[in-house]
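Entry type: protein chain
Record version: 2
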Amino acid sequence: MGREIDFISSIHKATKRDYLARVNDAEFPKYRCAELASNWAYDYWDGDRRICYGGYDYQEGRWSSVAASMVDHYGLKRGDRILDVGCGKGFQLVEFLPTLDASHLFGLDISDYALSMAHANLVRENLFRSSAADLPFESGYFDFVYSINTLHNLSIKDLFKAIKEIDRVAGNSYIVVESYRSEKEKQNLLYWQVTCKSFYSVDDWLWIFDQCGYCGDYSFIFFE
């Protein structure tokens, strides 16, 4: 296993969340939000904010610091192949374009809707509709693979497969998942999430990474 490296918590913390409102809404009760969000279609990305994102639009530069940090840390350069597992509309991938070639940027997601709405600057042929548990690439194909806020949406069986798959296709890798360090953070995560299937403490995640033989780096986001 690699080491814990934080590239994104400052962006995560910038979002203000009303946890109780998310749970107590009369029009969109939590179970209904989860039902709608789990289709990974319009409601999840661009539907009512009470369901999930409430309009997942590209905000130029919002994720540029994350891309720049990863480029610097992993020594990424033109010609390197990059894969985003759980890429959604590909907005994080776009932030690599000042440094890396579009033809070497790849994305994978389970959502047909998100991929159909992918950023215009990405190469369509490099975007794949598949589960993170089944990456359609040769072993060692990528110089760098990352997955941000995706793997906790998998059941335990597919979670183990996905971690091993990332290790299989990657030179270097970086995984970010939701977690908790206290009962307060655990409850906030339960209140806020609509698609999470793997609720684990930091220690549990580290155990899972170890059991999978994961060699890459990792990070956690917390709902404080």
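Comment: The chain is about 35% helix and 15% strand.
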